[in-house]
Amino acid sequence: MFELFSDLDAYPHYKTRVTGLKRWATEQKQDIASVMDSARAYFRQKGFSDSAITVKTPSKNLGVTEDILKESYEGYHAIVVGRTGWSRFKDWLVKSTAMKLVTKIKHIPIVVVGGNPEAKHFLVAFDGTHGAMKGVVCVGALVGKSDNHLQLYSMIDSKKKFWPGEDPYFKIDNCTSRIVIGKEKIGEQLEEARTRLLEEGVPSERLSLRIHTVGRDRATHIVRQAEENNFGSVVVGRRGLITFIDEFFIGRVSDQVLRLANELAVWVI
């Protein structure tokens, strides 16, 4: 940024202002370098080798969002961004960079992190769609044989409730055997999801299932389920085709989850 004002040295009236501008630019560079050093140290602490960590601090060209979008096509498998930037007021006033990126990046997963969640355990919102299955495959490939816990979380209309009693939940704590849920199609889809996760090395004892009878406000139930059961990460799939009218009036569930999940890591896949 300072390069834009570098020729002001030639004008006596601006010399004092240029000195202040230089000081500000230097402080900004130092702050950025300090943040990057802390991030590098954290990755090392978590077991990443130096060769696996690359630090880039390019100058803004097209704009923050567009520059990240362009960079995302350089061989990355996912993008991780904080929910808010340096200025929370600016994020409130206009759409944050994270939210802009979610609408623009569709070729790889994007993870939006709010607060300081314990992101090891995953709640996978699953409705049987292609987008939801992509989320299952992605998380399975990432987590694999680790000690993370995964829960497949599905919601159905109360009219489709197939289990006895008044409990609004049907749950399986350890998915060690085949999922069979009467004639409901979601049962076949959940079994396929379970099979894919097992193929990726996820231990069956770390895989659970919950089916919940809910009304229309599904995003609220997803976030509440995650927060009340210590799932720091929520995985949601992108919808395929959706009309402008549908999106305007009801919004996508993934968008609603993003707005509500202030203290969670939301994976949009």
From TrEMBL:
Domain (UspA) spans: 198-262
Protein name listed in UniProt: UspA domain-containing protein
**What domain of life does the UniProt record list for this protein's source?**
Bacteria
Q: One Pfam family from the UniProt entry?
A: Usp
> SUPFAM superfamilies, per this entry?
Adenine nucleotide alpha hydrolases-like
The family line of this record is: Belongs to the universal stress protein A family.
The membrane spanning regions, by residue number, are none
